[in-house]
Structure prediction request, 337 residues.
Amino acid sequence: MVKINWDSLGFDVVPTKSMFKATCIQGGKWEGGSIIPYGNIELSPAANVLNYGQGAFEGVKAFRTVKNNIVLFRVDKNAERMAFSTRRLCIPEMDVDFFINAVLKTVKDNVDYIPPYGKGSLYIRPVVWGTSPGIGVKPATDYTFMIFVSPVGPYFKKGLKPLNLKIANQFHRAAPKGIGNIKAIGNYSASLYPLAQAKKEGYDEVIYLDAVSEERIEETGSANLFIYKNGIIKTPPLSGSILGGVTRDSVCVISQKLLNIPVEESDVFIKDLEEADEVFCTGTAVVVSPIGKITFNEKTFEINKNKIGPITKKIRESILGIQREESIDLYGWLKYL
Ligand SMILES: *Cc1c(COP(=O)(O)O)cnc(C)c1O
Prediction:
């Protein structure tokens, strides 16, 4: 049996039993692959991914449910997005079934690391890299796909306390027609500095504006943004520099179909944030997290008196309810292990 204190889980890497590894070389296809012991790997210092960042990743969660089943949440969506990301980065396109089977295999071999019902989840990290050596700028010839997992608790240490965010006025996360709409590993390196600065100033995360007009809200470094005002939910449209989150899509479906709250995908301006009844961000890691304070150019405003709002709470609980099988999986989002 594994010894883990399930009550003290944060969002960190906990080494587990094993990981998945497959390769795709010299223009071949993605096939095969195997489960190997969890541990370090060997790469050429000239590997494409280490020099030019040719890599893409995913984030999926597995849960132990109230019915004592083990389920994956919307893994088919992650598989489709991986196919989309690999195409954009000239990585041999990974087909959906290959991806899903590899995730299932990895989770099965690490079931002992899935937290008990209600104590968190198993975060699954599929990642693909160009691994052949090269110094000329071109796509790699050989690729490695790996999946590792880690039991996780809440992403933000403060739990459900509303977040204190800063709107970046010196940095952009992504540009139009760039790679902000795929899960490219390089997108995150651009957001490390603004995030580190913001944390030093006491903020939890950064909100990015669109790189053209600097008036429209896009998203945070790793989560999509929503506002609620006068009975309507609004989120920025997937214009090309916003990552199409699986949680974002789930929130749109749940709000409209389950809670009967209309959702508009339309421009969100700084003023809309200021006047909103509720603001929240969404992602596999953060689920649905309330935002209580936002600062832009030294000016700070509070949302819903810095308390979690009823709509944010309802949406969060609806998603968690489906993930934990406390409510009916109306949309077929669960895949059973
Ligand atoms: C992964 C990610 C999200 C959230 O997507 P989910 O599929 O909901 O986890 C949002 N923004 C960025 C930039 C991301 O990389």
Observations:
- Residues 308 and 334 are 27 Å apart (CA to CA).
